[in-house]
Design goal:
Layout (H helix, E strand, L loop, with lengths): L13 H5 L7 E2 L3 H10 L3 E6 L4 H11 L2 H10 L1 E6 L4 H15 L6 E5 L5 E5 L13 H14 L1 H16 L13 H13 L16 H14 L2 H16 L13 E2 L7 E2 L2 E2 H18 L2 H17 L8 E4 L2 E2 L2 E2 L7 H7 L2 H10 L28 H8 L3 H19 L7 E6 H18 L2 H17 L8 E5 L2 E5 L2 H18 L2 H18 L32 H16 L2 H20 L5 H11 L3 E7 L4 H11 L6 E7 L16 H4 L14 E6 L2 E2 L6 H7 L3
Helix pairs in contact: 4-6, 9-10, 9-11, 9-23, 11-12, 11-17, 12-17, 13-14, 15-16, 17-18, 17-19, 18-19, 19-20, 19-21, 21-22, 21-23, 24-26
Length: 704
């Protein structure tokens, strides 16, 4: 008998499609669902998750695929499924509800609310049956049914009160003056949280949180505080050695369930790859150590191999589960390794990758020990070589041969599902990372991938009015873009311009920035709302600066404003940035370690920051050498413009009808080559150095 499908079958989201054959009569978030709830006087059961979420799968298998639970839900509720990655605005709104009602949040997120979207109950994972003090679906749903009938007025009053409390605007912030001492305070907070044994910050679970490392690297560069660099290096080395990293196929899993970085939750998220690669690239430039550049190359290899669509955009994520088990694709028994490798290789792999006969992986739900292993490196390649009496290079070659054999064997397994939707914000991050990788590692393949993705987004991810869209899948671009979409794509386009010096990318960044200001700006208090002024009317319109798994959209937008102001000479953008800093200053001052990407922008604003204009033939050896000198150093607080001398000095358009840089940055108009040679113009703090044709002198002018 064919399974009965519900309305989710018509959706594009892989997460919603996973539930399209549930016996629960799911609706997507649309007017039909709310009209039905009002007409039938039923509460809404809102369930929010994402396609690669392990505990979302657990709850789905236990409850949403269960006929008994489904009958109860269909009788009592109008049930709505939301993909948090498609609708982060809905997710943010009801995550705030969960945190207010329960003190915590996470996914799956389940909220019960009135037909007018006002919540009165929230929980994360709910088991099928009540256990260990946690109410189960079989008890919860009948209880809600009774309360909806017998305590209807009280529930509506509670929902009104909860909503009104959440909507209550905080008193306007007077603002405080932030100076460089806030950077030192941030560093002190991070020192106190640093795990000096295992690297990273805090205890289990541990997330990569690369923006923490961005802030530390900038503080190290500003203060020469070696402890800041030590924390960065120790964390990155521990992450790469641990089970958090996929040692065979590359790329990072979402987070570590333990403090040692050994046991991951096995989802692979695009944003983690983008942010982690940036952290390794910056540390490579800061230290000159090839090991960090190598990790960035490996991450890019994974993304370009497994996460790139035929259109050029990047897929969202890979699942933690395969064949109904978390991590099954990634785990190995000792016997499986011996089947793939010859005896000598197997012995080496078992020793280096910490493989145990009894296994090191236990199922989280039951705690049952298995004989399977998460591959990890107990020590660095150098230390392992010393222990084994093998040179580091020789050991590296042997492990690469082993890796390829194990990878090829693993490829024959059933792969985890892939969430192949393309999200504008996460793609913007990946464009930024690949662009920086192209610069730091001198790799044209990364620039080409970044350009293809950017061209796809700019062509396909806009509506008929030119406004940005959030999600693309299966030929369909939809859902009005949010703050993160604009902020992260603008960031990516700025990085891509500084890589390719293709002026239309900078022009596109400026156009999108204008849209962001027009539709998202809080004109009275500064900063940007997460949703546009003409977006869907949810119970909350949020404006936040604190970071989560990724940097906050406001902090990225702040740095974008500062960089675009310097690149164009537009003081209005700098004024907007100053108002943003003032707007968030009080809350940042109170807990600076929660606003680490804000510290990155603040570090830029404090200066010294520099504008560098290279005037010369774009393809000449001298110009390229000048650019390579810039790109081989860790110089985060600079912007770089190229004024190609092959462009007409007075013309409005360059080659192929593209705009010239002089039309965007008018201050570059008089800057010419000196004595017919590629010339660098460096300005810092409104003071310009004498133009130079010497790369070494250029770096000296930049304080290197």
């Amino acid at each position: 008998m064919a399974k009965r499908r519900n309305r989710l079958i018509f959706e594009k989201s892989p997460y919603l499609l996973q539930h399209a054959y549930n016996p629960v009569d799911w609706y997507p978030w649309d007017d039909e669902a709310f009209q039905k709830a009002r007409h039938e006087d039923k509460p809404i059961f809102l369930s929010i998750g994402y396609s690669t979420c392990h505990w979302c799968h657990v709850m789905a298998h236990e409850s949403f695929e269960d006929e008994m639970v489904a009958r109860l839900m269909n009788d009592v509720f109008v049930s709505i499924k939301v993909d948090r990655e498609e609708r982060p605005d809905i997710d943010q709104t009801y995550m705030a509800v969960s945190q207010a009602l329960t003190g915590s949040g996470g996914w799956p997120l389940n909220v019960i609310m009135t037909p007018d979207k006002k919540p009165f109950f929230a929980a994360t994972y709910i088991p099928k049956e009540s256990m260990f003090g946690r109410v189960g679906m079989l008890d919860l749903v009948p209880r809600i049914k009774v309360m909806w009938k017998t305590q209807h007025g009280e529930l509506l009053e509670s929902a009104d009160h909860i909503t009104a409390t959440l909507q209550q605007a905080p008193p306007p912030s007077i603002g405080v003056k932030l100076d460089k001492s806030v950077l030192k305070d941030t560093y002190s907070h991070l020192v106190n949280r640093f795990d000096s044994v295992h690297g990273g910050f805090g205890s289990a679970p541990k997330f990569p949180s690369p923006h923490t490392l961005f802030a530390l690297l900038r503080y190290w560069r500003r203060s020469d505080e070696e402890g800041a660099l030590m924390m960065v290096e120790m964390t990155l080395q521990a992450m790469r050695r641990g089970g958090l990293y996929d040692h065979l196929g590359f790329g990072f899993h979402r987070y570590s369930t333990d403090e040692k970085w050994l046991l991951p939750h096995f989802e692979k998220m695009l944003y983690d790859q983008a942010m982690a690669s940036l952290a390794y690239l910056e540390t490579y430039l800061a230290t000159g150590k090839e090991e960090y550049g190598r990790v960035a190359r490996e991450i890019f290899a994974y993304v370009l191999r497994d996460m790139t669509s035929k259109e050029g955009g990047f897929h969202s994520a890979e699942d933690a589960d395969s064949e109904g088990e978390e991590g099954k694709f990634y785990l190995w028994t000792e016997d499986e390794i011996k089947e793939v490798l010859d005896l000598e290789e197997a012995d080496l792999a078992i020793q280096v990758f910490g493989v145990r006969k009894d296994g090191n992986f236990a199922e989280e739900a039951s705690g049952r020990k298995t004989k399977r292993n998460v591959l990890h490196m107990k020590e660095s390649l150098r230390e392992a070589g010393a222990s084994l009496g093998i040179g580091e290079l020789e050991l590296g070659d042997q492990l690469e041969n082993i890796r390829q054999k194990l990878f090829e064997a693993r490829e024959k397994r059933v792969h985890p599902d892939k969430d192949d939707k393309i999200l504008t914000d996460w793609n913007g991050m990946m464009i930024a990372a690949l662009s920086r990788g192209a610069q730091a590692l001198d790799e044209p393949e990364y620039e080409a991938a970044a350009r293809k993705a950017a061209d796809f987004l700019l062509a396909k991810m806009r509506d008929q009015d030119g406004r940005l869209l959030h999600r693309y899948r299966d030929g369909d671009a939809a859902i009005r873009a949010n703050l993160d979409d604009y902020a992260f794509l603008i960031w990516g386009l700025i990085e891509l311009y500084e890589t390719s010096f293709h002026v239309p990318y900078l022009e596109a960044a400026l156009h999108l920035n204008c849209d962001l200001i027009d539709h998202f700006l809080d004109e009275e208090n500064g900063g940007f709302y997460f949703t546009p002024e003409d977006g869907e009317g949810l119970i909350l319109r949020r404006k936040e600066m604190h970071d989560g798994a990724v940097p906050s959209g406001n902090s990225v937008a702040l740095l974008n404003l500062l960089r675009l102001a310097r690149m164009t000479g537009n003081p209005n953008l700098e004024n907007l940035a100053a108002k943003m800093i003032q707007s968030f200053s009080s809350e940042v001052k109170g807990l600076p370690a929660a606003y680490l990407n804000f510290m990155v922008a603040l570090d830029f604003s404090f200066g010294p920051s520099s504008e560098v204009v290279i005037a010369g033939p774009s393809g000449s050896e001298y110009t390229q050498n000048m650019l390579k000198a810039l790109r081989s150093r860790f110089l985060p607080n600079k912007v770089v413009l190229l004024k190609p001398t092959e462009e007409g000095e007075e013309g409005e358009e360059g080659e192929n009808g593209s705009p010239e840089i002089v039309n965007i940055a008018e201050f570059t108009k008089p800057l010419k080559m000196v004595e017919g040679r590629t010339t660098a113009y460096v300005c810092s703090g409104q003071v310009c150095e004498s133009p130079t044709t010497d790369a070494g002198k250029m770096l000296e002018n930049l304080g290197v």
